[in-house]
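Technical annex B. To support the medicinal chemistry partners, we prepared a structural model of the target in complex with flavin-adenine dinucleotide, based solely on the information shown next.
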Amino acid sequence: MPNEVGEEFDLVVIGSGPGGYVCAIRAAQLGLRVACIDKRPSHGGTCLNIGCIPSKALLHASEVFTEVSHAGDMGIQLGKPKLDLPAMMTYKENGITGNTQGIDFLFKKNKVEALHGAAVIVAPGKVDVSLLDGGTRSLTTKNIVIATGSESTPLQGVEVDEKLVVSSTGALEFDAVPKHLLIVGAGIIGLELGSVWARLGAEVTVVEYLDRITPGVDEEVAKQFQRILQKQGFKFLLGKKVTEVKPLKASVKVTIEPAQSANESANKSDAEKETLSVDKVLVSIGRRPFTEGLGLESVGVQLDAAGRIETNGFKTNVDGIYAIGDVITGPMLAHKAEDEGVAVAEMLAGKPGHVNYDVIPGVIYTAPEVAWVGLNEEELNQQGVDYRIGKFPFMANGRAKVNNTTDGFVKILADAKTDRILGVHIVGPEAGNMIAEAAVAMEFGGSAEDLARTCHAHPTLTEAVKEAALAVEDRAIHM
Ligand SMILES: Cc1cc2nc3c(=O)[nH]c(=O)nc-3n(C[C@H](O)[C@H](O)[C@H](O)COP(=O)(O)OP(=O)(O)OC[C@H]3O[C@@H](n4cnc5c(N)ncnc54)[C@H](O)[C@@H]3O)c2cc1C
């Protein structure tokens, strides 16, 4: 009920990304009076507006563009496909609005009060909103959930103008295919966006500080993935760092040096430096939590050294203030944020909210895809766990063969004593969809034997998962 200070809610959620909007809907389903605020003109946060959804729209469209080029192999003569980039961008925009409008609908359906404006926490239980269309609202609430997400991490000394030097946001909006795109950072977002532009005709060079791509991904999978991307035309400069990015009129001059210079103490030898002239630079070195303008200092909410909101079971150090999603610790993934949103909503409604952080899948939506869940070999070795490996290549899978998508493999890591599945790692076609089976098996504490004894439809790519599970005991059939 409205009171003299403002309006009384059970829950005010700040940020309507996958963490915030899902939290708001679940809390409303459980009978709480909820408001959800976002300073963007459309709901859905990074994910729907400038992240998962637009990137997947362009990945899908560019993949179809590539596939059409190979349709002749299947007896379909289409001629050389012609790119209409503005139409592809409209397709992407339609995908965004289709999804963001879906959230407007869900908010209405669940009676979540949706506001567009910048929110400031003025005190525990009090949120002021500067509305986008003018004016302010003062909300009082029993609880606040902060779900303000993240932003691209800047590269020191490099200014992003979103034209010549771009973040992922600019790389989703190029008005022409760059002739040569240089990507700083061989992480997931950079490689996905690099794939889009490589498929559409760009030469793509990736500079990575480490001596490997996709840090955190099982090393064997990452190596295979790198080989596949190289076959697709990617050029990798590993163990290198970008030390200068100089935008010129219509190009960018980039200086690259070894990550660890042989002349670290002395002046760097010019022989170690190389310069490249490229059309565009994508800075993609990670994301950092976003809390600017929220008023956290004045209410005393604690951050950790990396700028994340410190939480214990989603509770901050201030009573009645919670935080979820990219703004707290853990993988910066939409589904992790969503699950946290559900968990905190259920906790606030007196239920036992829970997220199993051991079973959060990760996916790289390239072609082929890369997907994993659980621990990788490096992590198991670090922890001193005794494990067995079952591996099966798509080359030996009937469906992959007939589809001509034989690059990659499934790798299952199972406890040597108990056979419990500890991790599943896939590089190959449809890996992102196939990892769900492994996640379910792991959620139920399943063993490799459980997967191996589960009947899998033939002919499907999922048979490679079953065969990898059989291979844990050296009894794969088709190898
Ligand atoms: C290019 C790209 C591709 C990605 N692809 C994937 C993918 O395929 N799969 C995946 O799982 N993840 C992907 N991600 C990551 C994913 O987008 C994030 O993990 C996810 O959006 C985090 O959700 P969140 O709810 O924590 O925050 P966000 O989605 O970042 O939402 C936070 C919202 O809070 C709002 N906000 C901030 N401060 C205030 C304030 N003071 N007042 C009001 N509103 C405020 C912001 O406007 C924003 O809309 C991708 C990210 C990028 C950039």
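Notes passed to the chemistry partners:
Confidence is low (pLDDT under 50) at residues 1-5.
DSSP finds 14 helices and 21 strands in the chain.
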